[in-house]
Prior knowledge:
The protein is an alpha/beta fold. The chain contains 10 helices and 9 strands.
Amino acid sequence: MNLRQGGREVGKTLPRPKAILCVSAHWETRGTLVTAMEKPTTIHDFGGFPPKLYEVQYPAPGSPELAAEAKKILTKTEVGLDQKWGLDHGCWSVVKHLYPAADVPVIQMSLDYYQSPQAHYDLAKELSALRKKGVLIIGSGNLVHNLQRVAWDKLNEPGFAFDWATEASETMRRYILNGDHKELINYKTQGRAFDLAIPTPEHFLPLLYILALKEDSEEVSIFNDKSVAGSLSMTSVKIGRSN
């Protein structure tokens, strides 16, 4: 199952949200910001990809009201209201498969690169108030993301992964399914495989936002569990009830 198929299949199982809040690996800031415009632009924040990708538009409405509510309920840090960013490809490349009609309001929340993994996890706990009001929380990144070690000659070899990437992926899956959040928060203590899988934190931190929202009675499932080009993974995690 590819990302498009996986996203659309999962989208069918989710209760239709009132709005979406997305935490993307591609919006790092000093401090925490949320997009607060009525009509966020589609940002093509990448290079070297096929021209058709630069033509993609995802014209979902924004929600200044949701942004203001997020600012109010997030007490762990000061939250700024942003009018410039829009929806980056970490957001729209995921959401467009869940809701291709672009008819659900979307806001993004940035990653404060000065905060610790524990601080991100604790901040995410506060988003549960929005979730209980029908807001879908999405974290967009990769469990394994090392661009320096991508095997470009293996791009067309489905599932190819280096040994360290396989080790890290299997350990992460076990921690996720067993609810061992502390081990994932303390990923820097997990050894060489994790060091190679997470050379920088921005693609890993969105996972912590999702895990922090899990309630004791909720199930966790994994889909799109595929490796790409040796040092990337498309593994996705779903928490919560289905339709």
